[in-house]
Structure formats: C-alpha cells, structure tokens
Amino acid sequence: MQGSYRRLAESFRHQCNWNKPHTRYTFAFFTCLLVVGAYLSTSILDISVSVNKELPTKIIEIPLDCSSTNQTKTCPANYYPSALPTIRPRSSSILLSCPHYFHWIHEDLRPWKDTGITEEMVVRANRTANFRLVILNGRAYLETYVKSFQTRDVFTLWGILQLLRRYPGKVPDLDLMFDCVDWPVIKSSDYQGLNALKPPPLFRYCGNNQTFDIAFPDWSFWGWPETNIKPWEQLMGDLNEGNKKLRWMDREPYAFWKGNPKVAEKRVDLLKCNVSEKQDWNARVYKQDWDKEIEEGFKQSDLAKQCTHRYKIYIEGSAWSVSEKYILACDSVTLLVTPDYYDFFTRSLVPMQHYWPIKAEDKCRSIKFAVDWGNNHKEKAQELGTAASSFVQNDLKMDFVYDYMFHLLSEYSKLLRYKPKIPPKAVELCSEAMACHAQGLEKTFMLDSMVKSPKESSPCSMPSPLEPSALKQLIERKQASIKQVELGEQKYWEKVQDQQR
Ligand SMILES: *[C@@H]1O[C@H](CO)[C@@H](O)[C@H](O)[C@H]1NC(C)=O
Ligand SMILES: *[C@@H]1O[C@H](CO)[C@@H](O)[C@H](O)[C@H]1NC(C)=O
Ligand SMILES: *[C@@H]1O[C@H](CO)[C@@H](O)[C@H](O)[C@H]1NC(C)=O
Ligand SMILES: *[C@@H]1O[C@H](CO)[C@@H](O)[C@H](O)[C@H]1NC(C)=O
C-alpha cells in the first residue's frame, strides 16, 4: 500500500504540475482528473477486496445454554449442523498439512484396513471398555459400562463433545469402545494365524509394539482436576511464560525428576540415581507426596514452576505418562528413559533432535553422561531443549489435537461396515449435560476448555500412509541415533575408568 501511495504522489507531481504555463492548464487539469478518478476507483475496489480478505466470515458463538438442562437434562438443539448457517471456508483456503505424527493414524488402523470393522468386532471390545460412544448426525450418545478412575472418562468425553462443537456436522457417524485404564490390552499375538478372529478395535490413551489398541489424546488436554492440572491450552501459555523468566543458562545444571515412584518398579529404580554423600550422578529426584499434595491442592506441583533445571527426566509410570508433554515443553533437555509405550504423538519424536535417550537398564550412568555432555556442549544442549518445546508449542497445540481426533475418528468411521445406531441403554450427551451441573474445578476446567465457535477453516490435510520401506527407515534411523549415543556413553565410561586407574 505504501508503495502505491508513493507512486500516486509521483504521478500527481508529473501530471498535476500547477506551475506549468497557463495554456496547458486545461490539459493538465483533465489529465489530473483522470488520474485521480482512476486512482479512486481502483482504491475503492482495493478496499472492498481487502475487506473480503481480512474480515473473516461472521464468527458464530455457541454459548453454553443451561436453561433447558434445568429439570430435564436434555440437550439443546442450537448447535447442530441443521441449526447453523453453513460456514464458508476462507477464500484463501490453502490447506495446512498436519504434523508428522498424524501418519500413525494409518498404522493404528492397519489391522482393519482390508476387512473393515463389523459391529461384532466393536461389541467384542466391551470386555474392558469403560464406555461405548456413538455419534450420529453430529450428536453423541453414551453408554457407560464402568466408571473410570478419577475424571478420566469425564474429560475424555468432554473433549469429544468439544470436537463436535468445533466441527459441527463434519464428524461422521461412528460407534466406538473406549477404555480409560493405563495399559493396552488387545495383544496382537492373540490375533495371528489364518483362522484367528479379527482384533476388536479399542480406543485408549496409549499402545505398545505388542498390542492393537488405538491411541487417542488423553483427558489431561482438557484438564485434570484431581491434580490441579489446567487444560493444555492455558497450561501451555503458563509454561511458555515460565520459560521466558528463567533462561536455560541460569537453570540448575542437573537432571530433575519429580513424581510418584509407587506406580512402577522402574521409577523406584530411578530414585537410586539421586545425589548422595557417596555419589553424584547429576540427578536431583523427588518423590511426590500425594497425600500431602492432595491436602494442599497440589500447590507444590505447579508445572510452570518446575522448569528450573537444564535437564528433565521423563520416565514412564504404569504405562505412558501424561507428564511427557509438560517435560518436553520446558525448554530443558528432555532425558527420555527408553519407553515401552507410546501415546498418539510420541512416535514422531526424534532422538538427538527432541530428546536425549537414556538407557532403561543403566539409568544413573546414562544420566551422568548426558548431563556432563550437555554442560560441555551448552549450545547444542539448548538446541535440543528448544526443539522439544517448539514441537510441543507448534505441533501439539490444541488445534492439532482436535484435528488428530477428527482425522482418527473419520478414518475409523470409513472402516465401519455397518450403520451405527443408538444403543438401547445409551443417553444423549452434550456439553450442557456435562458442564451445567458440574461443580468446582471440574466446572472451571470445562468452561475454560470449551470450544466457543465452529472452526471456519478446514482441518489440516491428512498425510497419506507411509510406504513400508519409509516406515522401516524411520525406525532404523531412530535406532541408529540411539546406538550412537550409547557408543559415546561407553567411551565416556571407559575414559573415566582409565583415569581412575
Ligand atoms: C432453574 O432451576 C432453579 C432452581 O432449581 C430456578 O430457580 C430457576 O428459575 C430455573 N430456571 C429455569 C429457566 O427454569
Ligand atoms: C459385551 O458383549 C457381549 C456380546 O458380545 C454381551 O453378551 C455382554 O453382555 C456385553 N457386556 C456388557 C458389559 O455390555
Ligand atoms: C534426593 O536428594 C535431595 C538432596 O539431597 C533430597 O532433598 C531429596 O529428598 C532426595 N530424594 C529422594 C527421593 O530421596
Ligand atoms: C518391542 O518393545 C520391546 C520393549 O520396549 C523391545 O524390547 C522390542 O525390541 C520391541 N520389538 C520390536 C519388534 O520393535
């Protein structure tokens, strides 16, 4: 725009030269008029075009309507696709590609790729499921089998309802079973052989290389009231602010961990790496005192205040742990004790790019080497920290978490070989039915994480499945890089031993 103003001023100076001899006034005057006229007409056009471009289509807000839930607990009909004007995608709708970890949607659904999914298979997954969820015409219907631990089921369902508010009418009809317990249960070895049954599709928060469970974002993205962990969107902002306050160089030059060791043997084992009078493995580890913390509302567990060390250890609990994203977000180097489980995004983390691999069977020496290396290669160590937090801030923002759910559910729905119907014992579920009657922190987190308007642009564009060779290469590259760290570590300890002789 500035350029065109300058050009206009130039042309005024040339064409509208009032100092020219009288005889030329008329000519100059008309030319000038022409130029001004032309400018005005184009500039008006210009403005109208840019209005179209810059003002988004009117944002439709869908407030939480608690009036109709007062006595009857029915769901209002105001935010379903039939009640909404169609949302025009933005004119310049260049599709945004999804982050790399969306590839794993194809892998998780591969067991049913050729046969599809029948109702018999889905129903068979009821053995351990906490609930069955059916989506029909953008509405959700729930049959609860067993209440989950804490509010895992509540916030998982809340998340799915927010997805329906975000993409009204776009989430296809489906029927799924969800298990909120930590560890995966659909063992692949039970479904091998020619006459074997097809595995039942079961959604949960994690999987491992011996199971077919389908990984879905965990409840903590919408909040975890029992531990006072805020919805991810807010918490990510807090963590980002915290990072700015304490630079990497000013942080404690040790590896920090704090958590509940009781849930896993390997965590108890990690406690042995703590600093003592005899040894310093560069680790500073702390037990979380759950009873005391519950009493104090988890004030000692403010995650945004836990980015105080240059290195942070991630170690699994009874299965994957929700803490991974909080640790990666710290700007510190994540020391990742070789995991057995994955959740929906962790399979795309790259060793020596997003984290430093720690040997599960030799943790203390591995940690000592990593911290020594980092303190001697501060720039490279900081790069590892920054790469992890930008992965989290960019690829794992809520927009993409919702898009992951959207694509996973859409791909899953494509595999269904039957038309889902409302199970006899199911009840309709909507944000109102959950939030209007909720109390305390539960209500706060629901309102804080509520999707207020449908998204005007389309979901990110889903990557096509990786070729088997590309998938193999990905895994091999990861293993090679871990091997390289192990070799470095071995050399380091040989040198230490030589010096001690
Ligand atoms: C909802 O219930 C409360 C108390 O039960 C009552 O005071 C209020 O008037 C009711 N609102 C509507 C819209 O029915
Ligand atoms: C699970 O499904 C089977 C049929 O496959 C049925 O007999 C059983 O009652 C179901 N269990 C629950 C808890 O609904
Ligand atoms: C680890 O060592 C620190 C420093 O001595 C101590 O404060 C902390 O309680 C120890 N952690 C455990 C789990 O013993
Ligand atoms: C599966 O995971 C286990 C434990 O994490 C590991 O020892 C094993 O090598 C893995 N197997 C394959 C085929 O990747």
Automatic annotation (TrEMBL):
InterPro entries, A to Z: CAP10, O-Glucosyltr/Glycosyltrsf_90
Residue stretches making up the Glycosyl transferase CAP10 domain: 170-419
Regions crossing the membrane: 25-45
Top-level taxon in the UniProt lineage: Eukaryota
Protein keywords: Membrane, Transmembrane, Transmembrane helix
Keyword NAD part of the UniProt annotation: no
Keyword Membrane carried by entry: yes
Name of the protein in question: O-glucosyltransferase rumi homolog
Species of the source: Sesamum indicum (Oriental sesame)
Lineage: Eukaryota, Viridiplantae, Streptophyta, Embryophyta, Tracheophyta
